[in-house]
Write a structure and sequence with these properties.
Helices cover about 35% and strands about 10% of the residues. It is α/β, with parallel strands linked by helices and about 270 residues long.
């Protein structure tokens, strides 16, 4: 079997370590792809190290992360397929808008500039960070209860607790503040070139029970791309929450991502 020409680059979101993509890397490797999941700038190699050293993660904003991955992409032999979750979804949207990826899958992506819905569940999820402006330059951890509400609400309490223990790390507060003020700032870091018709195909995936990025946000994101003639599609997993890339149902989401790529000859 000839290996696909484009490698796959995974981008994690807030509160999850890059190693949470390991099952996806294996899945795509079995499908013939070369895949990797480098962490955000400052991310330690392991979950334990990240928990022990939150200062290394603190202070990084959206543009810092985009530039970090753009530098990684510059060292690749071909444009990668970008797959991101939560704020990682926002990052891959920005990279695709800059034509740095062959295609992108943005899973429960955080809101970009222009997205107006602000569901109460999103506010509740972000409140541990946004309640204190000083958190913009800190790394903040979620409690197990906060993770249960924001990520694990669509799985059992036992599975949510296990996911929390296995994958969660402190996250920089800055991206949340940047997203929260995006529509008030003309040059917001959360702005994406949604009108680029020369970019690769984009798949938006949403979980119907997601508290962190409710479906209203993803549907509004889709509308932002209405002026682009490039392929943009939306897939919904109605019974899934924000943990859909790490919980026991992740293979279904991975399979949908792979099917989208195959349909677009990638």
């Amino acid at each position: 079997m000839t290996a696909p020409a484009n490698p796959v680059l995974f981008v994690h979101g807030l509160w999850l370590h890059a190693s949470s993509w390991e099952p996806w890397i294996d899945f795509f490797a079995e499908a013939g792809y070369t895949a990797s999941a480098p962490g955000w700038p400052g991310d330690p190699e392991t979950v334990a190290e990240a928990r022990a050293n939150p200062d290394s993660i603190a202070g990084h904003g959206i543009d810092d992360v985009v530039e970090h991955y753009a530098a990684i992409i510059a060292g690749m032999e071909s444009k990668p397929i970008l797959i991101g979750h939560s704020f990682g979804g926002t990052i891959v949207e920005k990279l695709l808008g800059q034509s740095l990826g062959a295609a992108a899958v943005a899973i429960d992506a955080a809101p970009i500039k222009g997205v107006l819905p602000l569901p109460l569940s999103s506010l509740r999820t972000a409140f541990p960070v946004l309640r204190n402006p000083a958190n913009a330059n800190r790394a903040i951890s979620l409690t197990e209860e906060q993770f249960r509400y924001g990520f694990g609400n669509a799985v059992s309490e036992e599975e949510s607790a296990a996911l929390y223990e296995k994958w969660t790390i402190p996250a920089p507060g800055k991206p949340l503040f940047q997203a929260a003020t995006a529509n008030l700032r003309p040059h917001s870091e959360a702005k994406v070139d949604t009108e680029n018709s020369e970019r690769g195909p984009l798949l938006l995936i949403m979980g119907g029970k997601d508290h962190t990025v409710p479906e209203a946000i993803t549907k509004s994101t889709l509308k932002q791309y209405r002026h682009s003639t490039a392929v943009t599609e939306l897939v919904e997993f109605a019974d899934r929450g924000h943990s859909l890339v790490i919980d026991s149902g992740w293979p279904e989401v991975a399979q949908a991502s792979l099917a989208f790529l195959k349909k677009n000859d990638l």
